[in-house]
Amino acid sequence: MGFVAAPFAGNVPLFDLLAADQRGFTIPIQVKTINGGSWQYQADTFLEIEIVDDFQHVRGVRTLLNPDLVCVFILLRQDERDEFYILRNQDLQRLTFERYKSRKRPKKPDSMHCALRPEDLLDFRDKWQLVSEAFDKQMPN
């Protein structure tokens, strides 16, 4: 694709690598990888959730620091035919809002855990054009 990507040795909370194009422009990219099952994350990263009497009420969405952040979800396959799902942070927030319902969690009322399976992300499979679009947004007017 003509990009160079550089990971970080330490923990960078909001993204995992920087990708650079031929002009030297860079974009951050978040990467999540699984061998099977589902990708795990916290719903309250994206949603305003209030707990009242052990019942979780979804009150709305959070303001994202970088709604256009490119996220690459990778499903590693033993046959090395890995699957890639590319979406923006705002897409992940929308999916979370659509799927995460107000509810009572009997075992852990304060748990904001949620998960996405590959079949939940089929619309984003191999959507690599989002990476190019992220670089295009850096073009001066």
CATH class: Alpha Beta
CATH topology-level name = Trna Endonuclease, Chain: A, domain 1
3D shape: globular
Roughly how many Å apart are the termini?
A: 24 Å
Order of helices and strands: EEEEEEEEHEEH
Low-confidence stretches are none
Average residue-wise pLDDT:
93
Q: Which labels suit this protein?
A:
mainly beta; 5-stranded mixed beta sheet; 141 residues; Trna Endonuclease, Chain: A, domain 1; globular
Description:
The chain has helices at residues 89-99, 129-136, and strands at 4-7, 17-20, 26-34, 39-42, 47-52, 55-61, 70-75, 83-88, 103-104, 113-116. It has 141 residues and is mainly beta. It has one domain (4-136): Trna Endonuclease, Chain: A, domain 1 (3-Layer(aba) Sandwich). The two termini are 24 Å apart.
Lay out the secondary structure.
Elements: E1 4-7, E2 17-20, E3 26-34, E4 39-42, E5 47-52, E6 55-61, E7 70-75, E8 83-88, H1 89-99, E9 103-104, E10 113-116, H2 129-136
Parallel strand pairs: 3-7
Antiparallel strand pairs: 1-2, 2-3, 4-10, 5-6, 6-9, 7-8
